[in-house]
Design goal:
The complex is a heterodimer of chains A (278) and B (371). By secondary structure, chain A is mainly α. Chain A is 76% helix and 0% strand. In chain B, 24% of the residues lie in helices and 33% in strands. In chain B, helix 4 packs across helix 5 (139-152) and helix 5 packs parallel to helix 6 (169-185). The chains are: A mainly alpha (278), B alpha+beta (371). Chain A binds chain B through residues 168, 170-171, 173-182, 184, 188, 191-192, 194, and chain B through 50, 53-55, 74-76, 78, 80-82, 84, 86, 88, 90-92, 101-102, 105-106, 149, 153.
């Protein structure tokens, strides 16, 4: 009987073992980063021991003291920019996707193609025109110079058009005959695509949080920088901050996206599953 | 007063010429009257309902409800309930919330909504489902909830777009009874669209037969069967529909009368019908004769050819409760015969049928019935 058990389970066990090794490979850098936040530089540059002698919070204290960079301020800047960009970007993409999927209007095809083409243009190409534009609007060195260019997304339009195309017209027609105006019909449709909404918001937030180029170009003063530009300046500039401090900053910076991801993962999976169904 | 008045309603999707989904449709439906609209798929029946509900814009024509013109109004301002073929319950709302959805859109307070939802649920026997989600109830129960939602807000007219076609046979029967009860209670005009003639004939006070967007006949159910207006209605109503034989009428010098001649069937025209079917010119000689499958009876071997004799090779036979339908092939034409009881004939065997000349129908070259 025991033999039979091993015979049956050998395949799945091998797969699990392989996946475990792979997962460890991916997780190790993060673990290393977390632990390095509690080490002094001399410890960081020796491979062993992996674990620090004590969980000394001195790097975290230094980070929050503002001695090196205004970390708290920059963290809040990032949070505001990412949140606003997620809210605006999701709202625009969702409304536009609904229109493209459920309504016919003149120029629809051309506009759709144009939106798809924006996906193909690298951001680096647009950075100079965007800079002059933001300058003209007087928004340079303000969070809006980062938020607005990121709020319109061709990918988002594609995503929500695909999502709403899968939504049966019958439900919308039902809402219409039951007494809903067109705006109300749209609101009625939103809960029906909740997983897709959350999944898109998650992607949008992660991208906005990671964004490096736009804040680097649009923001100048220390107090207005986002946290990842701030962290980069710790290493690159004349600051020469200890590596432990940088790693502590990185650990904290990862927290919001990781948290969001953990909370929304279930919906994310559902949305991807639904989109890839037949 | 006519409650629902449809005048010359047309809908053209702008496709190839003559491909109108609905052409010059006119109908008046009184308060408390249920008119069933039946036709093959693609005949324009759903288009008609969607145009009345305001979900699709008509190309021309007017729709009036209680004297008020509906054209150009948004669906929400028409006060018309439409029940769909697909399940149209919102999956994240409970049965109670789905029932009261229309009231919520109108800003009725929660307490009043809940009371009304409970009353309606009791009426339809779904009170025990109020707290459930649509995914937790059966297809029949979902359509019951959809029906309840339509009743709840007391619309000025009811439209049904094949609401029973996605249900199994037993559920369909139950809901049909439910709709009949509703029909007796609600004093508003109702239009019931279906492709199932049994539904149309059992539910409708009057039945409209629609084909390719054009009304073929409007009449009470039994009249559709007894006096079909044209060959299409004759072949559509009945299961299976009337057997039609395209042929011509000729003088028969030997019998001093008229004779109907077609590849599959020939017979002497009964004297009382001669005047009606006598061709007025050479072109008008083309005529179609029809006989219902249930009016055919097996011919005795060697019997005289009294009315006419129909001979065909049996291609298939279907046994239903208490009767058998035989499908024949003869000289390129197909016909069916329906006989009571178990009638066993091997496929491939040749069967001979006869009929009473009084059961014959004649249709002219345009398909219209010759009285």
């Amino acid at each position: 009987m025991k033999k039979g058990f091993w015979k049956k389970q050998a395949g799945p066990l091998a797969v699990s073992a392989a996946l475990a090794v792979l997962a460890a490979c991916f997780a190790f850098p993060f673990l290393w980063m977390l632990l390095a936040g509690f080490k002094i530089d001399a410890e960081i540059f020796t491979p062993f021991p992996i674990f620090p002698e004590s969980l000394d919070p001195r790097h975290y204290q230094a980070l929050f003291s503002g001695r090196w960079i205004p970390y708290t301020r920059q963290f809040l800047n990032s949070l505001f920019i990412a949140t606003a960009q997620t809210a605006l970007g999701t709202a625009f993409a969702c409304a536009a996707g609904y229109l493209f999927a459920k309504f016919d209007f003149p120029g629809k095809r051309a506009l759709f193609v144009a939106a798809v083409l924006t996906v193909l243009i690298p951001k680096q190409v647009m950075i100079l025109p965007l800079f002059t534009w933001m300058n003209a609007l007087g928004l340079l060195d303000s969070p809006w110079a980062v938020i607005l260019p990121g709020a319109a997304s061709g990918i988002g339009l594609l995503w929500f058009t695909a999502v709403f195309r899968r939504l049966p017209d019958g439900l919308l027609d039902m809402a219409r005959t039951e007494g809903a105006g067109e705006y109300r019909v749209f609101w009625t449709a939103l809960p029906l695509i909740k997983p897709a909404l959350i999944a898109f918001a998650l992607i949008q937030f992660t991208l906005a949080w990671q964004e490096h180029l736009l804040p680097l170009v649009m923001l100048f003063s220390k107090e207005n920088l986002t946290v990842n530009i701030g962290l980069a300046s710790l290493h690159a500039g004349s600051l020469r901050a200890p590596y432990g401090l940088i790693m502590a900053g990185c650990t904290l910076t990862l927290a919001p996206t990781a948290l969001f991801f953990i909370l929304a993962y279930r919906h994310f999976r559902t949305a991807l599953g639904r989109l890839t169904e037949a | 007063m006519t409650a629902l008045k449809i005048e010359n309603l047309s809908k053209d999707y702008g496709g190839s010429a003559g491909a109108a989904a609905l052409r010059d449709f006119s109908l008046e439906v009184a308060d408390g009257e249920l008119v069933a609209i039946v036709g093959p798929s693609g005949c324009g029946k759903s288009t008609l309902l969607r145009a009345i509900a305001g979900l699709e814009e008509e190309t021309s024509g007017t729709v009036r409800l209680g004297g008020r013109v509906l054209n150009g109004r948004a669906p929400k301002d028409r006060d018309v309930a439409l029940m769909f073929q697909s399940y149209t319950l919102l999956p994240h709302l409970t049965v109670a919330e789905n029932l009261a959805f229309g009231l919520r859109l109108r800003g009725i307070p929660r307490a009043a909504r809940e009371t009304q939802a409970r009353d309606t649920a009791r009426l339809l026997g779904i009170e025990n489902l109020l707290a459930r989600l649509p995914s937790e109830i059966s297809g029949g129960e979902r359509q019951r909830v959809a029906l309840g939602r339509a009743i709840l807000r007391r619309p000025r007219a009811f439209l049904f777009d094949e609401p029973l076609s996605s249900l199994d046979a037993q559920m369909r029967l139950q809901l049909r009874v439910e709709i009949q009860r509703l029909h007796q209670r609600m004093q508003v005009p109702m239009l019931f669209v279906t492709h199932d003639q049994t539904e149309a004939l059992t539910l409708g006070d009057r039945v409209v037969v629609l084909n390719r967007g054009v009304i073929q006949q409007v009449s009470p159910p039994d009249e559709l069967y007894r006096r079909p207006a044209n060959a299409f209605v004759a072949s559509f109503i009945g299961s299976p529909g009337m057997n039609l034989f395209a042929g011509r009428v000729e003088e028969d010098p030997a019998a001093l009368g008229l004779r109907f001649v077609s590849p599959a069937l020939s017979f002497a025209v009964p004297p009382d019908r001669e005047a009606a079917v006598r061709p007025t010119s050479k072109e008008r000689a083309g005529i179609t004769a029809g006989i219902r499958p249930e009016h055919l009876r097996p011919a005795e071997a060697g019997s005289a050819e009294a009315g006419g004799l129909l001979i065909g090779e049996v291609a298939a036979s279907e046994r239903q409760a208490g009767q058998t339908t035989l499908y024949h092939q003869h000289e390129g034409a197909g016909f069916a015969a329906r006989v009571p009881g178990d009638f066993s004939v091997r496929p491939g065997a040749v069967a001979r049928w006869t009929f009473d000349p009084a059961d014959l129908f004649f249709f002219d070259a345009n398909g219209a019935r010759i009285p």
